[in-house]
Amino acid sequence: MKIRLQKILAQANAATSRRAAEELIERGRVFINGEKAHLGDKADPEIDVITVDGARLKLDLGKKIFIALNKPKHVLTTREPHQGDRRPTIYDLIDVSENLFPIGRLDADSEGLIVLTNDGAAAQRLTHPRYQHSKTYKVEVVGLPGLDVLDKWRNGVILDEDEHTSPCIVTLIQGDNRLSTLRIIMSEGKKRQIRRVGMKLGHQVRKLVRTHIGLLSLGELRPGEWKELTASDIKLLMTPAPELRRLKAARRSHPFGRPRLEGSDAAVRPIRRSRPVETDLDEDAPRPRRPRPAGESRSDDAQRPRRPRPAGESRSDDAQRPRRPRPAGESLSEDAQRPRRPRPAGESRSDDAQRPRRPRPAGESRSDDAQRPR
Q: Judging by DSSP bridges, how do beta strands 111-117 and 205-213 pair with one another?
């Protein structure tokens, strides 16, 4: 059966990943039956002759090897260290001739569980962030993190301008003002992530040990010891921690909001941020008048209670308010039917002189006032 060439190269350990296999094909180093291969080509490893750099590809579809190693501190998770670096690597601790690559790296200052395998598909599923497989760590930090610090750690921290950590599960096991121990379950693995988050939140990491990948634990392995995994061990390796399954379910239930973790039970709820309502109205501008209902006359206003005048506001301020336009067909004499405002105690008639006079319409003389009712 024909399968994609990148998968064949990864399974044959000709490349550490499918992306690396694509680079081999793009550079013209891979041939199928003597013809140069291209991206997207498929081949049958049992029939076709596949060569890389002139050497025939040996594809062993038989036994898959999984090895668990307890990596000690100051040991590199790489095959070839940088020039001048004389520190040992994890391959110096394993006496296996197979071409193995690690599942989940650890920096030199960290220690704990590392799994090495020749199964490229399994390694891809256990390491790629898309599959969100769980890794558990025991971390010692300086000081005693408060509840606010733990909540920030659980909900994700901005490390750089474009780098944000995903939500994780953080539980305080024990601690005091000098040193505290945390249990952290994560589904991603950015470079030195736990150490960077601890430094960002003001609690430097003193010791970091990976205790589990999935449900597979270190067990009784001492630093530097390794063992080959059995079928039951591989099943535990491929099974994520139950806490992470609850986190995935909570993420699916809130597709439009980022999960928020509160407490060690990993309860989640979406974060919703409200935005201020923008308006084009000027606060100092006059408010629009309410339209008068049909059948309601001006005289009905006398029955409505007056609003109390604010302290410091005089009657003369009313002159600045816009006057209501007089309806067509209404004469000035109709004003006499309106009830007069009662004069407050202590106010004399002479105070009316301070009120602004109504401008006289064009064509109206002073003598016309005699015709108006007093």
A: parallel
Global pTM value: 0.56
Q: Whose CA is closest to 98, among 30, 185, 11, 40?
A: 11
The per-residue b/e assignment along 86-115, b for 16 or more CB within 10 angstroms, e otherwise, is eeebbbebeeeeeebbbbbebebebbbbbb
Distances 66 to 92, 108, 135, 231, 235 between C-alpha atoms, Å:
17, 22, 17, 10, 11
Average pLDDT over residues 107-122: 90
Read off the pLDDT of each residue in 40-64 and give the average, rounded to a whole number. 79
- E runs forming strands in the chain: 3-4, 30-32, 35-36, 42-43, 50-52, 55-56, 66-71, 101-103, 111-117, 135-142, 158-160, 163-164, 169-175, 179-186, 205-213, 216-217, 226-228, 259-262, 267-270
d(CA 113, CA 217): 7
- Per-residue pLDDT of 252-301, as tens digits, reads 554 434 445 545 443 333 334 334 434 343 444 455 666 777 766 665 55
Task: Tell me which residue of 77, 28, 73 sits closest to 53, measured CA to CA.
Answer: 28
- Per-residue burial over 344-355, b if 16 or more Cβ lie within 10 Å, else e, is eeeeeeeeeeee
Question: Is 233 marked active-site?
Answer: no
* pLDDT reading at 84 higher than 90: no
Contacts 24+ apart (CB under 8 A), 320-324: 321/286, 322/286, 324/289
- In this prediction, residue 113 carries a pLDDT of 95
Query: In angstroms, rounded to a whole number, what is the distance separating the alpha carbons of residues 217 and 107?
Result: 19
Portion of the chain with pLDDT greater than 90, in percent: 29
How far is residue 289 CA from its own chain's centroid? Answer: 47
Nearest alpha-carbon partner for 90 in 118, 104, 109, 69:
69
Which among 44, 48, 53, 107 is annotated as catalytic? 107
Going by C-alpha positions, the residue among 240, 239, 241, 237 that lies closest to residue 65 is: 237
Number of C-alpha atoms within 13 angstroms, CB side, residue 313?
9
- In this prediction, residue 264 carries a pLDDT of 43
136 beta partners: 185, 212
